Amino acid sequence: MEELILARIQFASTTLFHFIFVPLSIGLAFIIAVMQTMYVLKGNELYKKMTKFWGAFFLINFAVGVVTGILQEFQFGMNWSSYSRFVGDVFGAPLAVEALLAFFMESTFIGLWIFGWDKLPKKIHLACIWLVSIGTILSAFWILAANSFMQNPLGYTLQNGRAEMNDVFAVLTNQKLWVAFPHTIFASLTTGAFFIVGVSAWKMLKKADVEFFKRSFQISLIIGMVSALGIAFSGHSQATYLVSAQPMKMAAAEGLWDDSPDPAPWTVFALIDTDKQESTMRVEVPYMLSYLAYEQFHGSVQGMKNIQAQYEQKYGPGNYIPPVKTTFWSFRIMVVMGGGLLLLALIGLVLQWRGRLEESPAYLKWMVAAIFIPYIGNSFGWIMSEIGRQPWVVNGLMRTADGVSPNVSTGQLLFSLISFSLIYTILAIVMVYLFVKVIKRGPHEKLPEDVSATDPFNTEGNNYAFK
Amino acid sequence: MHLSELWFLLVSILFVGFVFLEGFDFGVGMGTKFLARTEQEKRILLNTIGPVWDANEVWLITAGGAMFAAFPHWYATLFSGFYLPFVILLLALIARGVAFEFRSKVGAKQWRLAWDWSIFLGSLLPPFLLGVMFASLIKGLPIDGEMNMYAGFTDIVNLYTVVGGIAFVLLSYLHGLMFIGLKTTGEIRERAHRMAQRIYVIIGVVVVLFVSLTALYTDAFREKGTFLIPLYSAAIIAYACLYYFMYKKKEGWSFVSTGLVLALVTSSFFVALFPNVMISSIDVVNNLTVYNAASGSYSLKLMTIVAVTLLPFVLAYQVWSYYVFRKRVTDKEHLEY
């Protein structure tokens, strides 16, 4: 039992940590590719500077994303060996494709991009960053294909006590994949866009390199606006999917114990009591849940008690209700973050259109803080998605408790959990430190290697500075 | 040929490819402590592998992914059974990977010292752990009837496996020295040559010792002697040729020779294993084989099509990236790392 809890804490913390870096990498790779395209097409050095400056963040972030990703690839076997045996056939395949198709592409072309500025023709060098960007997006697609199997298992048959794949098209046309993939990509683009917008806002407030940062701000704000809209629409399609494929998650996300009235209202706020199985003090928006679920203004949504009774018949006795409060509140936090981003982007576009960005310090300050909004939304989105699936690791097929490695002891788990947490904490601190350093340096100053030459405490630096 | 046999071959190739490519990366990483004398030399070394190390590491990740897809039981038993070695391997690879990117971003001495140690240990521990793992795989491990491995410390760490680990570290270092010879100029290039000549004999002795212990501690030669003897003979010939190439200062051929030795030694593990993928020291009926550990035929067929389609492209662009960065790295140019 202790092993299960520790293994779950480790998986949750390492995966959430990994997903701090993934969206920013996907978002920045795309925006940088756009900037470099403008440089190659227009020949304007400003865009080259932009590419390099924002590229510095991308590379620091990408490095952490890559190394924390290796752990992801290995920890299914390490901590969830029973799960891996059961689903490897159909879950392992997309992971292998991800490595073959996406990881090789990203890693090779990022090497070519970093080191190839003076070695490759301009257009081929530009193609490299686009291939990196495509690689990051493909990577998201294949890992989501794997995750979609956990949420909504399709294209398999139970054989030899395992889930064996028998229809790859069913795996790849899983509705969950096609609602989650755009949602994740739009969220990633938004993360990248708001990062650039936020840093630019900071520099504009400081009146440093205003032209450079204003232009970066404008490009990214447009991308941020479009992708925030994308999040909203793709999020809506997630809800329609949930009602039909994962009704328990939907009911938990709404704190709905009994079947809803028809038409179903959407709950803004409620006090949830999991012992008494009731939600009180509901603040509701009439008709809205019906609309979210069925795209029409009528229709009732099933409650948890009802679904629990159905599942007991289907799967035998047991508790099939996920942690309701976590699911409920994660969903709300995510939605509020998404809405906030949309609103901020909209205000920004109006200010930009009126040419009053620089005279709106209050707005710029908001945008600095807004750097963190996508991260909060991303994390709580995944918490809702994964917690809402409990007690299942593969929905309706395997319980999380049955997936854990039987041969990994509490001591081993404590060692790994503590050491991973420690090294991840160090990585986080170092990364923030480096980000701040790059921000302070700005786009025009010398390259970092010369820093050592001017550091009075670094005698080694002096040695080769005068060679 | 059964598809699961083909996938065993493919997983073996991925591991061999990883050891050949990342082997010299690891060697160069060790060289930052053992070979480089100045800050500038360290940076030159790091920049020789700068553009390629990440893609080389993906060979390991892909090997893991391919195991997961084609041999779920092998993946599950291996990764959970070697839990702590994998934790340490991951810590090492995490520290090393970010160190490349972070090291030269700040000039302070302590900063660089910390990342230097990350690079050094991150390059030393992985080949050691992989050597230990490969050796214990052919020696056999306590695997029960449920395919779960419950290994004690001495099941994994013992004389035989430790010699295997050391052999892997030394071969990787030698391979790295050859790469340095190939990619640098001047003083450090000469020093790499001299260092390689100095440690040539001792590395040969360790590798021969390891092969002898394999004959002593495992069934490998009894079961697969007809394949292993030619394989090790080829490795010995390659190692002898290395001496000639070093003497003649043929850097390309020297690099190929050390790579060949590493590749042959790594292949020998898979030859010795086949058709098993994990050998149980408790009972042979508990052995995981390419047949009982494999995925269903639908998955294997599908994955074969995917791999056959994608691998040529992967190989093509990786070769191209080596072609783009074929020139020697000097301190005259801008050093990214």
TrEMBL record, chain B:
Keywords: Cell membrane, Electron transport, Heme, Iron, Membrane, Metal-binding, Transmembrane, Transmembrane helix, Transport
Alphabetized GO MF terms: electron transfer activity; metal ion binding; oxidoreductase activity, acting on diphenols and related substances as donors, oxygen as acceptor
Transmembrane segments annotated in the record for this chain: 6-36, 82-102, 114-138, 158-178, 199-217, 229-247, 259-282, 302-325
Top-rank taxon: Bacteria
Bilayer disposition of the protein: Multi-pass membrane protein
Gene Ontology cellular component terms for the protein in this record: cytochrome complex; plasma membrane
GO biological process, one term: aerobic electron transport chain
Pfam family, any one: Cyt_bd_oxida_II
InterPro entries given in the database record: Cyt-d_oxidase_su2 (IPR003317)
Keyword Nucleotide-binding: no
Ribonucleoprotein among keywords: no
Cellular location(s): Cell membrane
Family: Belongs to the cytochrome ubiquinol oxidase subunit 2 family.
Listed name of the protein: Cytochrome d ubiquinol oxidase, subunit II
Species, as recorded: Aneurinibacillus aneurinilyticus ATCC 12856
